[in-house]
Amino acid sequence: MKKLICKLMLFIIPVLIYLGVSVFIDPYNVFHTDNIRMTYMTPNQNFIKTRYILDNKDKFNALLFGSSRVANLPVDGLPSVSEDGKELSWYNMTYAMGGIEENYLTLKTLIDGGVDVDEVIIMIDEISMWKNASYEYDELIFITYQAFEKSPFKFYYAYLKQKPLLKILPLIYDNYRGKEECLLGKKLFYEYGVDEKNTDFGVEEGIPTVYESERSLEYNEMSNAVSYLEKIVTLCDEEGIRLYVVTTPIYEATYREAIDNGYLEFLEDAAQVTDFYLFSGLNTYTISGNYYFDGSHFRPYVGLQMEKVVFGTDEERKKAVVEAANINSKVSFGQIVSKDNIDDIIDKLREEVE
């Protein structure tokens, strides 16, 4: 018996050490939702943010949803008070490649969990036209909170079985010793759900930067995007939530590829279930890489101009629209699109690119 116990200990102790190291390093921060560590690894923001809001039900009542691009809608340009005079506290639920189906599931989970939501902004783009929710465990950054609800053991096991990423230990140490940039990163994450770069309103000066297009997939009958957009509209109507739907100002090279893959058809379908503000198209911002971090993400300066169109005074709105227009523009920046004018809008968007 004594020998058996010794053998078991020789097996159990290394396993416990391995599990302890895995939980401590935790590059996706699923074991550290209330005290994330800032490293170069992108955490599983879908899980962490959903858990954070559910654990702090009274902290926020206004939410932004979309892919990582929605992080560049700064809190500075959002309304602090609703139309009926209620104070608004905004949180940005951006997570990597966040599609409309995932956004619906997150919003439904929060509402069912007792979170009182008054206003919602959802940003749609050429990513959301094809990106359905993933129920697989092969990409740890994308595992949803709903997967955790279905099987907490399976959820955590997916992270524990990964080989510990030892090379980020120095970065984790920087967090625990209170390095300034780490403290700022945590503060921004828990106050508004964004990174430091998402608060920088600067733009590149000089010769326009040119980026390669970001790859998009085809919009087809396999997409759940519009059906889940309709579910979001219905859910918000039922819960008395003020919903704003906006499209992304997509960088020109990426935009042209998206059109080839059915982006305009996606917009046509979306207009049948909800009105939205159209920021896609060729304008001052989308034709110049100086207003983008890369071929995918517009800079917060552009996001602020979008917010002026949606939430600003008449003077701010007019100025933002004028500044965004150029000789290629056939549709105004932030044009309100509905099922009544979508055909005309699509014709004009096709004129722009031709």
Q: What do you see in this structure?
A:
The chain is α/β, with parallel strands linked by helices. It has helices at 2-25, 45-55, 100-112, 145-150, 152-160, 169-176, 180-192, 225-239, 252-260, 263-271, 300-311, 314-324, 342-353, and strands at residues 62-65, 90-92, 119-124, 242-247, 276-278, 335-337. The protein has a four-stranded parallel sheet, with helices on one face. A two-stranded antiparallel ribbon has the order 5-6. Helix 3 (100-112) runs parallel beside helix 8 (225-239), helix 10 runs antiparallel to helix 13 (342-353) and helix 11 (300-311) packs across helix 12. The termini are far apart. The model has no long low-confidence stretch (mean pLDDT 93).
Rounded to the nearest angstrom, the distance between the terminal CA atoms is 82 Å
Largest sheet, order of strands side by side? 2-1-3-4
| Number of helical stretches of at least 4 residues | 13
Q: How are helices and strands ordered from N to C?
A: HHEEHEHHHHHEHHEHHEH
Number of extended strands: 6
Indicate the mean pLDDT: 93
The shape is globular
- Estimate what percentage of residues fall within beta strands: 5-15%
Query: If you compute it from the alpha carbons, what radius of gyration comes out, rounded to the nearest whole angstrom?
Result: 22 Å
Main sheet?
4 strands, parallel
What structural class results from the helix and strand content?
alpha/beta
Uncertain stretches: none
* Percentage of residues assigned to helices: 40-55%
